[in-house]
Amino acid sequence: MDTARCVLDGSDYTAIQHSQLPPSARSALRPHLRCSHCGEPAYFRSGTPAGNGRQGRSPHFFSRPHGTNCEITRVNADPWENDDGDSTVAYWEERNKKLIVQIRIDDPETAGGGNQTEDGDGGQRTVGGGIRTRQASTIRKGPQRLLEQLVSWPTFKTSELIIRLPDPNLTEVPVHTAFVRFEQADSELHTSQWHGFWGVVPRLTYWARGGSYYANFGINERSFRIAIDQSHVPAILSRYGLASINEIVGGYMLLFDIARISNSGRFTADVNSVNHIGFLRAAQ
Question: Is residue 205, in this structure, part of any structural domain at all?
Fold first, then answer.
């Protein structure tokens, strides 16, 4: 689970936020954490480093067991309780599951997919004063979990599963089309709709005039690059416990954006907010 709820004040903690608390604070919260869907006790599991042929895993919460008919276990059997990712992909494909990219919205002006509300089990929920029926075949995943799946589950990145992108048109494409490796991004193919651009972050350069950090994947004018405006840096450092933005170099990043051709003619995908990315540290 990405989040757990503290019953003392109703606050939701992401696993990464919880991992950055002092040990004494985590101990104090331990008996008060619950699954935000079923209310069963939630437990924290620290992230694991990469090594011995295994990719690292970000910190996360789990409940064992979840409550009867808990939304998480009903939707996808909570595959983060085990390491059998390819079996999970096969399970989803067999049942024609549809993935929905879930991006938390802090600012409706900058966050894509602001009308994403379906989350996968049957029943109804109130949305903006109306009633919307949930679809039993949908699974919501944020950029962090999707990145972990891309890195750790070999069959996921080539899957025919349908995924709904975080754009106002709710574009749906196969997973293998939705995600594009940084090195394979093409200005002729990947500027017309949202994509999940991902891969290993190379050396960063800072352009003071534009107030942005850039990672370039070639020297040609139309070579792909990612841009991180300095206004987003504090949130990235806080979420991932980094001392400097340069610590993302060598790690995996997934960012959702509709890439653009800049005024200078450069093929660019922007980090629109910390909520639009996932990040995994480089192996130590």
Answer: yes
Q: Which of 57, 81, 105 finishes a domain?
A: 81
Beta 98-101 vs 138-141: how paired, if at all? parallel
Of 81, 106, 132, the residue at which a domain comes to its end is 81
> What's the domain range around 187?
180-280
Using CA atoms, how far apart are residues 270 and 259, in angstroms rounded to an integer?
7
Cα 241 to the chain's mean position, in Å?
A: 16
**Block residue for tokens 């879930």:** 102
Number of separate domains in the chain: 2
Residue 181, CA distances (Å) to 70, 103, 145, 195, 280 in order: 35, 20, 17, 10, 15
Separation of alpha carbons 12 and 3, rounded Å: 6
Round to whole Å and give the CA distance between 178 and 191: 12
Report yes or no on 101 lying in a domain. no
Q: Show the CA angle centred on residue 239, arms to residues 226 and 230, nearest 5°.
A: 40
pLDDT at residue 87 in the model? 80
Domain membership of residue 3 (yes or no) is yes
With respect to residue 248, please indicate whether it lies within any of the assigned structural domains: yes
Low-confidence ranges of the chain (pLDDT < 50): 51-55, 75-83, 107-135
Q: What is the pLDDT of residues 185-196, one digit of tens each?
A: 999 889 988 999
Q: Where are the beta strands (DSSP E) in the chain?
A: 3-6, 12-14, 33-34, 43-45, 60-62, 98-101, 124-127, 130-133, 138-141, 162-164, 172-174, 179-181, 195-200, 204-207, 212-216, 224-229, 252-257, 260-261, 267-270, 277-280
Instruction: Indicate which CATH number applies to the domain containing 208.
Output: 2.40.50.140
Pairing relation of β-strands 260-261 and 267-270? antiparallel
